[in-house]
Specification:
The protein is 77% helix and 3% strand. It is mainly alpha-helical and 189 residues long. The chain has a two-stranded antiparallel ribbon with strand order 1-2.
Length: 189
């Protein structure tokens, strides 16, 4: 049975509407990165810090960076990972009613899955752009903004898929959110 692109598009639109309908979604996308970056900005030091990267040879000179710049990258990765894993979790747990309606209308599971993955990909790119803009506007001028955005997209995709996995394995919302929040912050650290 082939996947109908038209039906996958309709499933994408319906699922996207269902996800964006909740006020929590917009609140998370606006508040979480801003809150993370504001705390990092207020608590960060202006003094340069020298450190060695594990993958460089022993005789390589240390890398010197402002703590706020390092914090911006860490906070950006944490924010992108947390938000995308939350949306991945939400796509499977909270949107069960929308899925049931699509199945009752005759949609195939491949069409629904393609729509969910496409929606997750769009959300990952949007969140990466949002977090990248915060890093650039709040913290510092980024020399390689494209590479930074690519890193945010990559971590967003990994954690978005992790959120899908948690959503498939854990049925209760509280446990799912705990899995998502704890692993995202532990792994980024």
């Amino acid at each position: 049975a082939a996947v109908s692109l038209h039906r996958a598009w309709i499933a994408f639109l319906l699922t996207g509407r269902e996800v964006l309908r909740g006020r929590l979604v917009l609140l998370l996308v606006v508040v979480v990165p801003t809150l993370f970056f504001a705390v990092a900005r207020l608590t960060g030091s202006e003094d340069d810090v020298a450190f060695r990267l594990a993958f460089l040879p022993e005789d390589a000179p240390p890398v010197v960076a402002r703590p706020q710049a390092a914090a911006a990258v860490f906070i950006g990765l944490s924010a992108a990972g947390l938000l995308t894993s939350f949306f991945g979790l939400r796509l499977l747990q909270r949107e069960a009613d929308a899925t049931a309606r699509l199945v009752l209308c005759g949609y195939r599971s491949a069409e629904i899955l393609a729509a969910r993955l496409a929606l997750l990909g769009l959300l990952v790119v949007a969140i990466a752009l949002r977090v990248g803009a915060d890093v650039k506007l709040v913290f510092f001028e980024v020399d390689r903004l494209g590479a930074l955005l690519a890193a945010f997209v990559a971590i967003g995709w990994v954690y978005g898929c992790y959120g899908l996995l948690v959503g498939a394995l854990v049925r209760r919302e509280l446990e799912g959110i705990l899995f998502v929040a704890l692993l995202t912050n532990l792994d980024s650290g």
